[in-house]
Design a protein that fits this description.
four-stranded mixed β-sheet, four-stranded antiparallel β-sheet, single chain
């Protein structure tokens, strides 16, 4: 992190001399990382997790650094008898209009509450302890902390972090104001290159769902 800060200051035609320079740069790094979370799915932050369901309990806490759930299944059995069934996602309005929220059985849908801390509510209410929700979540990128740790990003994104930090610092360093357009262009190019590589490479297969 310290090396990225030094590089960003140099791109702005300046250098980090004081402890405050490093502190304000760490704030800017964290702002850049938060912006990335708003850009979409960062593949390296996708993690798998499990929630053992409890008989009669419908709402469960998610890890506090969870941004959102990408997908989830209800798992029953183990080994060769293991079965994963899709857990569909519904909106708040759809869940609110369900007439009987206390129906019990094998969960088939979920509602995500993205407040702090985030929670997931399943329906029907589990009627057994043999169910486990297996989910794939999008977690928050770790902060820059005290400037001594390694960035929580793949090495392919290091140029994008550096360019983004230089652009953010350009608003704070008077002598860098004339370079803002160049810094922005460099940041945009570095971000597009990194995100173009950070993508799912599996083949997309579309199958019609035919029902009676």
């Amino acid at each position: 992190v310290a090396e990225l800060i030094e590089e960003a200051f140099e791109r702005c035609g300046s250098e980090a001399r004081t402890g405050y320079d490093f502190r304000t740069a760490r704030r800017s790094i964290n702002m850049v990382l938060m912006e990335w979370a708003n850009q979409g799915i960062n593949m390296w932050t996708v993690e798998e997790g499990e929630i053992p369901l409890v008989d009669g309990t419908s709402t469960y806490a998610l890890p506090p650094d969870t941004i959102d759930l990408l997908d989830a299944v209800v798992r029953t059995g183990t080994g060769s008898s293991q079965v994963d069934l899709t857990l569909g996602r519904v909106s708040f309005s759809t869940y609110a209009t369900m007439p009987n929220k206390n129906t019990s059985g094998r969960p088939s849908i979920m509602k995500i509450d993205r407040h702090t801390p985030p929670t997931v509510t399943v329906w029907p209410v589990p009627n057994s302890t043999s169910y486990t929700v297996v989910y794939w979540r999008l977690r928050r990128i770790q902060d820059a902390a005290d400037g001594t740790n390694t960035m929580d990003v793949p090495f392919l994104f290091i140029p994008a972090v550096t360019a983004g930090l230089a652009y953010e610092l350009g608003f704070k360093i008077p002598e860098a104001m004339s370079r803002l357009q160049i810094l922005k262009a460099e940041y945009t190019e570095a971000w597009e290159l990194a995100t173009g590589e950070d993508r799912e490479r599996a083949t997309l297969r579309l199958v019609p769902r035919i029902t009676s």
